[in-house]
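Sequence, please.
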């Protein structure tokens, strides 16, 4: 009986890491001198809150003025078992540090993003121009920012690397000025302020730009926004875009949506045409459908067969005997 009780308890020591003082306005009283040792016995699953309550009451100290340390500060809801406390281990007790009444200054990034967006809009101190298609739109920009944020522009604008570096003009074709401006906003501020307001065609175009200009973070942001817009009408477009631009998260989301609503989606002629334009998608659709289809056991087919013994008997019945054969020859 005693052996079982001992196996469920643990003996340890609480040592004062400093003088534990009961402080007052007129005088201070040292209740526990530094390095004082206090032996304790607890159940392994007992909460430390009982230790805190007992120790402070026994030594005449406010409970909230103390903190107890093992490897880390002990949680009142923890237990000896939860912190792997062993026999003769030492727990330190000390005064809880006073909390500062001075509010810590908050670091706000909003001003940085706002200033960077203003810099892009103003074009102040720009040294390169980005021209878009045939719309006549152009965006003054800064080589250092483009190069620091985008590997594509870093390679393009390296001194002597390409004609864009010398001319200071980058031409982007086959994309709208609106989406190019969104891409530049992301390069400058690491965000697109109205990304959640874009439609599926705009998101696909921005996703295409992100993949073309090696902006992985922008591609991920577009995938997350697009995943919220997937529906019966645009799933084909999103699937093809995801396949063509390495948007695996978006593709998996679309495949899950397809499995759930496959009966309605397969009735859509536009969806079938979009899938036909990207054969690799068709294979993946078949694959996910096959994984979801239940396995139907095939019933064994009954095969009529005869044993060798039965067959030989049948042959013997059909063949004439030797005597019959001889008599036929002589008649």
């Amino acid at each position: 009986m005693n052996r079982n009780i001992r196996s469920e308890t643990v003996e340890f020591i609480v040592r004062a890491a400093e003088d534990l003082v009961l402080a007052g306005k007129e005088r201070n009283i040292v209740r526990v001198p530094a390095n004082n040792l206090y032996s304790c016995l607890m159940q392994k699953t007992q909460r430390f809150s009982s230790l805190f309550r007992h120790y402070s009451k026994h030594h005449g100290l406010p409970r909230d003025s103390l903190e107890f340390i093992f490897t880390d500060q002990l949680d009142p809801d923890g237990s000896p078992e939860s912190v792997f406390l062993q026999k003769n281990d030492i727990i330190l007790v000390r005064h809880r540090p006073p909390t500062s009444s001075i509010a810590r200054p908050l670091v706000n990034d909003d001003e940085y993003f706002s200033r960077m967006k203003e810099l892009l809009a103003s074009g102040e101190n720009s040294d390169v121009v980005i021209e878009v298609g045939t719309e006549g739109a152009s965006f003054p920009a800064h080589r250092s920012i483009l190069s620091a944020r985008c590997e594509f522009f870093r390679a393009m604008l390296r001194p002597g690397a390409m004609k864009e570096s010398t001319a200071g003009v980058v031409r982007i074709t086959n994309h709208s000025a609106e989406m190019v401006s969104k891409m530049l906003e992301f390069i400058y501020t690491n965000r697109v302020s109205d990304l959640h307001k874009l439609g599926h065609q705009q998101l696909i175009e921005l996703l295409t730009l992100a993949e073309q200009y090696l902006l992985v973070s922008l591609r991920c942001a577009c995938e997350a926004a697009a995943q919220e817009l997937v529906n019966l009408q645009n799933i084909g477009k999103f699937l093809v875009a995801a396949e063509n631009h390495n948007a695996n998260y978006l593709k998996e989301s679309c495949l899950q949506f397809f499995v759930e609503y496959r009966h309605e989606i397969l009735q859509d002629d536009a969806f079938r045409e979009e899938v036909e334009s990207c054969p690799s998608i068709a294979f993946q659709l078949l694959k996910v459908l096959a994984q979801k289809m239940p396995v139907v056991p095939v019933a064994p087919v009954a095969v009529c067969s005869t044993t060798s013994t039965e067959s030989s008997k049948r042959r013997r019945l059909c063949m004439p005997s030797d005597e019959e054969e001889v008599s036929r020859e002589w008649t």
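The chain has a mean pLDDT of 86.
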